[in-house]
Amino acid sequence: MSKLFSTPVPGLLFAFIFTLTNPFFSWCSEPVSIDAQIDISQPTLGDIATYSITVTHDPDIVLHIPKYVIPEGLENVENGKENPKKINKQITQKFWLKLRIDKIGPITLPPIPVWFDAPDSNKQIVRGKIMSPEVSFEVQSLLQLEENASDIKDIKPIANIKAPWTHYIWKAMAILCLLALGYWLWKKWQNNSTPKSEPDFALTAEEKAMKELNKLKTRDWMKLGRIRDHFFELSEIFRRYLENRYDFPAQEWTTEEITAYFKNSSDLSESQKLQTRTLLIEIDKVKFAKAQAHNDPIDSVIHFIKEASPVLVLPDQDTFAQVTPVTKSPEKP
């Protein structure tokens, strides 16, 4: 007996004591452990399942939020994490992910890496990674879970319905008739509401010119800063008046040609000829030379037209008096 146990007994006893006192052996708590699960055992189409990853670690280890890989048939609704819990001198951290199920059949959630920072033997922070286990489940149809689904019928095929073209044509014709009637009533109302103006051909040269000058006055272009526009329009009205009144192309002639025409004309007095030349030159300076307008010659044009208007002289009654000779009838014998 002494030969059998004399040598190995002290070595085995020492190894047993060392194993019990060493904290790094397998039956002691691991620094980091991970687990994953899904909360619904038999999910159906449209359900929202919660996939959770639980990590248990030492207090000096710092976890990072995992980056999820979502397979086909699942839709991410929201994700987050719970408050950490301290259990048996270790920290338990739970990360969760809510998924909407959009596919029938088996679905597998792949292993998800969870990164962490931990101190090494030299108290230096190193980066580590732990993988969650793979989670598989099968999504079932509601019809498979129903014990009696004989009352549920399949969707019928699309029925071929002919379009009621005749009905559409009559509707379109009615709409067109209403539009035509509305347009005719609008035009009739517009014609009735618009006052009929006196035709220009029935007006004299003086009346036309005065009508256009009064309209130009109401525009008030001088106060609005449109001075050249005002003088251009005034020149057109004055030249048009001269052309209609004295029967020569005043709108096509220059100021010099108009002055030469009136020089040998007896239609105007000498003062009117001088006034015509002065008005045309004054208007042309602003029109073509862009001279500064000190005053508005429109009143002078109106005064000229009124002064040059022909005076109608009514004939005396004596002009139409007729003398009837008185003859004596022959005496009877």
Could you characterize the architecture of this molecule?
By secondary structure, the protein is of the alpha+beta class. Among the domains are: 24-145, Sandwich (Immunoglobulin-like); 203-308. Helices cover 39% and strands 20% of the residues. It contains ten helices and ten strands. The chain has helices at residues 2-5, 8-21, 142-145, 165-193, 205-219, 221-224, 227-246, 255-263, 270-288, 298-308, and strands spanning 32-38, 48-57, 62-63, 74-81, 85-87, 90-101, 105-109, 113-119, 125-131, 135-139. Strands 1, 2, 4, 5 and 6 form a five-stranded antiparallel sheet that branches. The longest helix is centred in the middle third of the chain and has 29 residues, at 165-193. The chain starts with a helix and ends in a 25-residue tail after the last helix. The model is unreliable at 1-7, 15-28 and 319-333 (pLDDT under 50).
In short, what is this structure?
With 333 residues, the protein is an alpha+beta fold.
Coarse shape: elongated
Q: How large is the radius of gyration? A: 57 Å
Task: Please state the average pLDDT score.
Answer: 80
- The proportion of residues in beta strands is 15-25%
**Helix proportion of residues, in percent?**
25-40%
Order of helices and strands: HHEEEEEEEEEEHHHHHHHH
What is the count of helical runs? 10
Structure summary, number of beta strands: 10
CATH class of the domain at 24-145: Mainly Beta
Pairing-aware structural class of the strands and helices? alpha+beta
CATH topology of the domain at 24-145: Immunoglobulin-like
Distance between the termini: 221 Å
Q: List segments where confidence is low: pLDDT < 50 over at least 5 consecutive residues.
A: 1-7, 15-28, 319-333
The multimeric state of the shown protein is single chain
CATH architectural type of the domain at 24-145: Sandwich
Largest sheet: 5 strands, antiparallel
